[in-house]
Amino acid sequence: MTYLTQIQGHTLWRPGLTQQSLVVDLGANRGAFSKQLIERYGCRSHAFEANPALIQSMEGASQLTVYNYAVARQDGRLPFRIAANDEASTILCDGAEQATDIIHVPAIQLERFLGSLSIDAIDVLKMDIEGAEIEVLESCSDRFLSNIGQLTIEFHDFLGLTSVSSIKNTVHRLQSLGFAYIKVWQHAWGDVLFINRRWHAYSLPQILWSKYWTRNLWGFQRVLARRLASGSVQGSNG
Fold first, then answer.
1. Positions of E strands within the chain
2. Which of 23, 172, 173, 213 has a Cα at 20 to 30 A from 146?
3. How many CB atoms lie within 10 A of CB 202?
């Protein structure tokens, strides 16, 4: 029995996903995360992507609303560094060192913008915005964050874009607001799930099972898959 599921490298609390779930997808790229969630659970998603070249691939998808904005600390216009790998583009000045272009994009502050849409509660908040996760969370009030059922976040310490100390400060803040967390990667914070105990009636054994057994099983499966792939490559070259 597993209480966790993964979509596009982001871990989610499976009992919290239903047809009525409202998802906010920050750093949607081409929309694969939102589309898979919608296909699997029939939920609704609001997807934010700063790169205008990627928006077209999401337009027209059922139950998916797309916004061509960068999500940042405050409203305005920001330089957006487009990387050769479009998943690595960022608003950070020290990010996307291999940027192929810099464009200026409209930026919004998340809590204010969602408030303008009369959205004050979110079932799932997914964040993969290439190092801007900390500043976006810092810009949100405790009240806003407390009205989120779960957050699945790719922090970017493994790329040197985010300090571990700032991540730990964010973790402590979310814990103080009633979130339990599961760090899926062993050596970095690239896949972290926060579950709001005020929304989800999980038990301590369920959290411990997910935090240790499921996480470690996934890790073993990834290592085994890499070794098998490496063995097949060596065999084909032999």
1. 4-7, 10-13, 22-26, 44-48, 64-67, 70-72, 76-83, 99-109, 122-127, 148-153, 179-183, 192-196
2. 213
3. 17
Q: What is the pLDDT of residues 124-176, one digit of tens each?
A: 999 999 889 999 999 999 999 999 999 999 999 988 889 999 999 999 999 99
State the residue for tokens 């790229």.
29
Using a 10 angstrom Cβ sphere, with 0-12 exposed, 13-18 middle and 19 or more buried, the burial of residue 143 is exposed
Domain count, the chain: 1
> What CATH number is attached to the domain comprising 233?
3.40.50.150
Closest CA to 150 of 112, 202, 113, 108: 202
- Given a cut of 90, whether residue 106 has pLDDT beyond it is yes
Q: What is the DSSP string of 96-152?
A: -TTEEEEEEEEEEEHHHHHHHTT---EEEEEE--TT-HHHHHHTS-HHHHHTEEEEE
The domain in which residue 183 lies consists of 4-237
| pTM of the predicted protein model | 0.88
Q: What is the pLDDT of residues 55-92, one digit of tens each?
A: 988 888 889 999 999 999 999 999 998 888 888 888 88
Q: What is the pLDDT of residue 72?
A: 95
Helix or strand or coil: residue 177? coil
Tokens for 178?
């009633």
